[in-house]
Write a structure and sequence with these properties.
By secondary structure, the protein is an alpha+beta fold. The chain is built from 11 helices and 6 strands. It has a 4-stranded antiparallel sheet with strand order 2-3-6-5.
C-alpha cells in the first residue's frame, strides 16, 4: 500500500482454532511499516491485535478471536488486507468444520463390551448342559435326546459323573463367553457407528438401510469373534466333550499343541467362521427388526425384559434353522481323528444319514440356542440400560 515503507515480516499460513481463539504463528512474508512509531491502526486495521517483536519489527504471533477476525474482514477497505483476511476466514471456517467433525466422531462402544461380557456369562451358566447334550447328539446322530443324556450322565465317577458331567468345561466356557460375547457386541456397534459416520455422513439410515446395516454389522461381528476367540475355543470344547477318557481341559489343550501345533487349534475353522458370520447376519437384523417394531421405531423406548427375551429367542431360532448344517460340519471336522476337510465331512455326514443328517441335533440346538439368545439379548439390554445406553 502507498505511503508505507516496506519491510518483510512473517505471518502464518495456518490458523488454528482452539477454544474460540485463533493462534497465528510466524511463517509468511508480509509488508510492515518501517518504523513502529509510524504504525497506524486505521491504515492497517489487522495489526491492532498483533504482538510485535520491536528489535527487528517482526511479527511473532497474533491472538485474535473469531468475532474480531470476521468483523475486521468486513470493515477492511484495503484490497491487500481484504485478500489476506479472507484466507484466514476460510481457514477458520474450515477448522471449525474439522472440530465439529471430531466432536461428532463416534466414541468406542465400551458399554457394549461390558454388557456383552455379562450377558455371555449368564448364557453359559444357564444353558451349558443343553450345549453338552447338543454336541453329543451331533457326534452320535443315531441316539435320541434321552439316550444321549443318559450316556453323558454315566460318564465318569464321583464328582465328575452324574449331573456334574453336564457341566464339563463350564469354567473355560465362561472365560470364552466373556471375551466372545463382549467382542461380538463391541464389534457390531463399532462397525455400525463407523459406517454411519464415514459412509452415511452421520445421517440416520432409513429402516430398510438399517436392516441391511445390521446384517453387515452382524457378519463383521461374527468374523471378528471367530478368529479372536471362537474357532480355537470351539475345537477344545468339542475335543473335551467327545474324548474317550476323562482329561482336563488344560490336558486337551496340551495334547492339541503337542500333536498338531498352533494350527491345530484352527481345525474346522472355515466351517466355524461361516457358522458365526451367518449366525449373526441373521440374529442382529431379526432382533432389531422385532424390537424396533415393538418400540414403534422409538429408539429411546425401553422394552420389558420379557419382550427382549422373546425377540432374542426368535432371533436365535431363525439363525439355527438356517445354518445348522454348518454347525454339524464344524463339529465333525473338529472331532478327534475325524475328517480333515469340509468336503470329506460333508460326504461322511450324507453317507451316515442322508440330508436329514445335516440337521442332526437341530431340535436340541434350538432348545439350547433359543433360550441362550433370549437370555443374552435380555441381559445385554438390561445392562445397557443400567450403564446408560448410548
Amino acid at each position: 500500500s502507498s505511503g508505507i515503507n516496506a519491510e518483510y515480516g512473517v505471518l502464518c499460513e495456518q490458523l488454528i482454532i482452539e477454544a474460540g481463539v485463533a493462534f497465528i504463528p510466524v511463517q509468511k512474508p508480509l509488508l510492515l511499516p518501517h518504523s513502529l512509531n509510524n504504525y497506524n491502526t486505521q491504515t492497517l486495521p489487522l495489526f491492532d491485535t498483533l504482538f510485535v517483536k520491536k528489535k527487528k519489527s517482526t511479527i511473532i504471533s497474533s491472538i485474535m478471536d473469531k468475532q474480531t477476525l470476521f468483523s475486521q474482514y468486513a470493515s477492511a477497505n484495503n484490497s491487500f488486507l481484504k485478500s489476506m483476511l479472507s484466507q484466514f476466514v476460510v481457514r477458520a471456517e474450515s477448522k471449525d468444520k474439522e472440530n465439529k467433525d471430531a466432536a461428532h466422531k463416534p466414541a468406542l462402544p465400551w458399554k457394549r463390551l461390558v454388557a456383552g461380557a455379562v450377558a455371555g456369562t449368564a448364557d453359559v451358566w444357564v444353558c451349558h448342559p443343553l450345549d453338552r447334550i447338543k454336541t453329543h447328539l451331533q457326534n452320535n446322530p443315531q441316539l435320541t435326546i434321552a439316550q444321549s443324556t443318559k450316556e453323558i450322565l454315566s460318564k465318569g465317577k464321583g464328582v465328575t459323573g452324574g449331573i456334574s458331567a453336564l457341566y464339563e468345561g463350564i469354567l473355560p466356557m465362561t472365560v470364552e463367553a466373556i471375551f466372545k460375547v463382549g467382542i461380538r457386541y463391541f464389534s457390531f456397534q463399532f462397525f455400525v457407528d463407523q459406517y454411519t459416520h464415514r459412509v452415511l455422513g452421520g445421517v440416520k439410515p432409513t429402516a430398510e438401510k438399517q436392516f441391511f446395516l445390521n446384517l453387515l454389522g452382524g457378519g463383521f461381528a461374527g468374523a471378528v469373534e471367530s478368529f479372536a476367540v471362537v474357532i480355537p475355543c470351539e475345537l477344545l470344547k468339542v475335543r473335551h466333550m467327545t474324548q474317550a477318557h476323562n482329561v482336563s481341559f488344560s490336558g486337551v489343550f496340551k495334547d492339541v499343541i503337542k500333536n498338531e501345533g498352533i494350527r491345530g487349534l484352527y481345525t474346522g475353522g472355515s466351517a466355524t467362521f461361516l457358522r458365526q458370520a451367518t449366525n449373526h447376519m441373521i440374529r442382529f437384523p431379526v432382533f432389531y427388526a422385532i424390537t424396533g417394531y415393538l418400540k414403534g421405531n422409538d429408539p429411546n423406548k425401553h422394552l420389558a425384559v420379557w419382550q427382549n427375551l422373546v425377540a432374542g429367542g426368535l432371533a436365535g431360532t431363525a439363525s439355527t434353522l438356517v445354518n445348522n448344517p454348518l454347525d454339524t460340519i464344524k463339529t465333525r471336522m473338529q472331532k478327534v481323528g475325524a475328517n480333515k476337510s469340509a468336503v470329506e465331512a460333508i460326504r461322511n455326514i450324507y453317507r451316515d444319514g442322508g440330508i436329514k443328517a445335516y440337521w442332526a441335533g437341530v431340535s436340541m440346538r434350538i432348545v439350547r440356542v433359543a433360550p441362550g439368545q433370549a437370555i443374552t439379548w435380555a441381559v445385554l439390554e438390561w445392562v445397557l440400560k443400567l450403564l446408560g445406553k448410548d
